[in-house]
Design brief:
This protein is of the alpha/beta class. The protein has two domains: 277 residues, Rossmann fold (3-Layer(aba) Sandwich), CATH 3.40.50.300; 252 residues, Class I glutamine amidotransferase (GATase) domain (Rossmann fold), CATH 3.40.50. 36% of the residues lie in helices and 22% in strands. The strands form five sheets. The chain has a nine-stranded mixed beta sheet, sandwiched between helices. Strands 5-2-6-1-7-10-11 form a seven-stranded parallel beta sheet, with helices on both faces. Helix 1 runs parallel beside helix 3, helix 5 packs across helix 6 and helix 12 packs across helix 18. The structure holds glutamine (GLN). Glutamine binds next to strand 19.
Amino acid sequence: MRGGEAVTKFIFVTGGVVSSIGKGITTASLGRLLRNRGFSVAPVKLDPYINVDAGTMNPYQHGEVFVTEDGAETDLDLGHYERFMDVACTRASSITTGKVYLSVIQAERRGDYLGGTVQVIPHVTNEIKRTILQVAKEQEADVVIAEIGGTVGDIESLPFLEAIRQMRKDVGPENTMYVHVTLIPQIGPWGEVKTKPTQHSVYKLREIGISPDVLVCRTEVPLDEDVKDKISLFCDVPSRAVVESMNVETIYEVPLAYEEAGLGEYVIEKLGMEPREPKSAEWKALVDVLKDPRESCRIAVVGKYTSNGDAYKSINEALIHAGIPNHARVDVRWIESDSLENGRPPEEFLEGVDGLIVAPGFGGRGVEGKIRAVQYARETGLPFLGICFGLQISVIEFARNVCGLSGANSEEVLDDPAYPVIHLLPEQKGVADKGATMRLGSWPCNLVTGTKAAKLYGTTRITERHRHRYEVNNDFREKLAEHGMVISGVSPDYRLVEMIELPDHPYFLATQAHPEFKSRPNRPHPLFSGLVKAAIAQKARVAAG
Ligand code: GLN
């Protein structure tokens, strides 16, 4: 909490030279340095695309859609923020060009501008500033860290850069800081380190009126003092503020590397914040386990978008986190669900894996492949976790192969299935718009005492985040239960099946929610830790023959 006198500080993170330079991890790590000092931090992502939110974007192109507690469908960078900073982002944490223009145009239609000509400056830039300030106010944060998507020089990001330039004047230079993430490439036969792209990228920023206070330099080799001095001279930042950022073994090591490079101390000093000793022990301990685990196991993830490594980002990270309490490295085998449909038996794909996840997804493609994978896990005792669509698939599989309801399917997959065991949520009937219309965000769920789910969570009252239109059809609840499927979690009004499990299996659980969004390295999610624990046991069992 802030003291009575305290004002919010603003850190703006931009990127130069190339895209995918790691602004998200830098922003997230910076947040961790402040959190380690006990400051409250509110992250914001400013995305230049015209989509109002990421909900309508294809995961192939854009990676995972991250869902916040309050049900916003956002960019996957918010996932990094939540995991590194251990905070909960809100709808306000994600600002897109589409969202900004939508509210400016709505205001214009209402007549709010009283006959004025509506322009990028000041109307659009004011709206951007308003939304950033709203986050500061709503979350009463000591520091707001705002990352600007895209690369300096992009046409699309100009209004955002102009808005953050103006903010230095609005809230005071002593309360703002510009961090620019840039690349120092090596070239030529001797691998010479080149600073020119960084200089150019800083010139580009200056053209807009922003002079960076800190340069985070991505580099493959350590930067000599003379290189830092050169960057300092040409880019007008103190040598101390030229921070070398080398590749590290695990992304969770980045905050430790930045701390070591003096970034935390510099930021605090520059923003005139109270100097505090950073408490990094917990973070250091988890990084130590990640770098030197005792055990290992392999989990297969079957999904529709596995060829884009970012499409299941939070699941991948949740598995890494789940390794920590088990002192294990978790290797992931990504399996495209289509490939399970070409007639080859699932054991060919699942050979050597110790656990299976069926990932969230939409539409019919690859569904039969997923069903075969679940059947294999159910019949062979392979630990299984079904996530959202994964729960629906496991119910279809069980209905068909255990309850004898052949032709069972989801209404999402088939128009008029013989047994519609998965059907549209009642409130979804008649919904035509695709954007922000699913069952989204955090919902409560009651777990049945004595179930594996209740044991794993250590409580019977939980909340999890959701993003779906379909659900288990209650007409089939009894039939599923008769044949041994336990409905271990339901909505408080009993209307919705939220979790299922098979008691006679070493680990067979599925959830209608997305537990991956709530996993943190320092607080791994129990469903994932449970899966990894069961996978290690499975590996030992197989080894023992
Ligand atoms: N397609 C399914 C539904 O809409 C599952 C969604 C998901 O896996 N997130 O219900």
